[in-house]
Amino acid sequence: MPDPIRVAAVGDVHLADDLRGRYAPLLEGISEEADALLVAGDLTQHGTLEEAEAFADEFGAADVPVLVVLGNHDYHSGAERDITRLLEDRGMTVLEGTSTTLDTDAGRLGVAGVKGFCLGFLGRSAADFGEPQMKAFTSHGIETADVLRKALDDLGDEPDVTVALSHFAPVDETLVGEPKEIWPFLGNYRLGEAIDETGVDLALHGHAHAGREKGLTPAGVPVRNVAQPVIQAAFRVYDVVPRRSA
Amino acid sequence: MNEQLARDLERDIATDPRTNELGIRVQVRGDHLVVSGEVASEERRATVIEVVREHDTGLEIVDHIMLSAEPGPGGPGHEQIEPPQRS
Where is this region: Disordered (chain B) (predicted)? Predict the structure, then answer.
């Protein structure tokens, strides 16, 4: 079996000045156990530039490439574009309907990312029907899945390991523990469909602080909820065995 | 009435710019207002309680808010992900 590509991940760290110093000491030297660090949104608490600066300072301590998607909290102050620019100026990759590849000792890692949006799950999802506001809500959820699918398609077969990174959950199995009434606001089954159609090896998400870590898409792709309150650690590492070994 | 008060408080904790905490639950139990959920720091817990206190409900506030575990050193270990079996 070939060596695995080591993907470290966490989400929902909700950085602000009061949490400075919590992550940087734990991320220094992370290259000894991971090839890349993926962050599944809600980097900040209120989506301000000051909080994004705190995130960049803490996660900038990692000595591996840092790839992130934004979360709903990062949009709260309307500064998401400035936050994206700040993080990219600090050498991080911000994915939003986009993808990138990294060469590691064990092969090429492809990551496609999107924040995602609400929608719900089969039989209990929002429908594109009725008032314009409801149609707008629904179509935005569908659109986020479409851009994830396109970002994954853009990667093609080139990567040895493909990871889908989102803030909202692509399946409901990792929401168990959250009140069922709010599941439509935590995830979106269309994200799961996009993942199943595009040869993904591992899907990572956050957003569901009271959910559980492990789930599967309908086609059997492993899904991991890496929200920090779920994994209770600075990061989790997934050793993903390249597909060519199958 | 109690249910409405609880939902109003939850909404205010979610939307107040000092807190913006979406995971806080409020319940009325007799003369007590039980505030539960999880926040990332002691300072954030105190601010949530401050927002609740400003409502002057006449109920005794019971703070059941948990602090997120601080990320521990050494990480949680590795999990191996095998390639999915595709049909």
Answer: 68-87
Q: Nearest-CA neighbor of A1 among A202, A237, A246?
A: A246
pTM summary value: 0.88
pLDDT in tens, chain B (87 residues): 688 999 999 999 999 999 999 889 999 988 889 999 889 888 999 999 999 999 989 999 989 888 887 776 545 578 989 876 654
Q: Which residue of A has its CA nearest to B21?
A: A45
Of A8, A201, A239, the CB nearest to B83: A201
| Minimal Cβ distance to B81: which of A18, A233, A238 | A238
SS3 A140: helix
- Mutation target to probe the B interface, by most B beta carbons within 10 A, among A42, A51, A197, A232 is A232
Phi, psi of B79 (to 5 degrees): -115, 130
Classify domain A5-245 by CATH architecture: 4-Layer Sandwich (3.60)
Q: Which CATH class is domain B2-67?
A: mainly alpha
- Residue type at position A183: W
Mutate to test the interface with A, among B18, B24, B36, B78 (most CBs of A within 10 A): B78
